[in-house]
Amino acid sequence: MPIPERGRGSLGGAPGSGKSTIARALAKRLGAVYLGIDTIEQAIRAAEQADNEMGPAGYVVAYGLARENLTLGSIVITDSVNPIQLTRDAYHDIALSVGVPCLDVEVVCSNPTLHSERVEHRTVDIEGLALPDWQAVINRDYQPWDSERLVLDSAPLSVTQSVEKIVAALAKES
After folding, report:
1. Contact 133/14 with Cβ under 8 angstroms?
2. How far is Cα of residue 122 from the mean position of the Cα atoms in its chain?
3. At 171, is the secondary structure helix, strand, or coil?
4. Cβ–Cβ under 8 Å, residues 67 and 98
5. Contact predicate 163/23, CB 8 Å
6. 76 membership: H or E segment, kind and range
7. Which of the residues in the chain have pLDDT under 50?
């Protein structure tokens, strides 16, 4: 299966849905630049020596890094909850402005028991990052998508199966 030379894939979904695991595996498989919003936001918090809500700063940094790396000819994989259409559109618009294909991916976990277990038993791999508990995940404002995307259900799909579905969809986009 051909791998795209340039382009962008944006993975969004609720915390604990599996998107970061899939995004990292995809970036490794494609030799892509990986931009994780949790890493960016935690670095900003650490630099500011603050433990506050981030607002748009992390996303704005990710947009700039995505645009720069796409312009340099890299494949870019972005990993963020992407809870509102505004952020989803921004990532998509960046790819279009650089003239590269873009694939938006929503990762869901259709099994609430599995999803809650993932959320409650995750380990932190970013120093200082406080992960949300299950109640915070279900109370989070997450607007339904109104744009075309590939939807992956991480309950029945393995990480490898999810990555292969994304690679196949990217090959169609390029």
Report:
1. no
2. 17
3. helix
4. yes
5. no
6. strand 75-79
7. 1-5
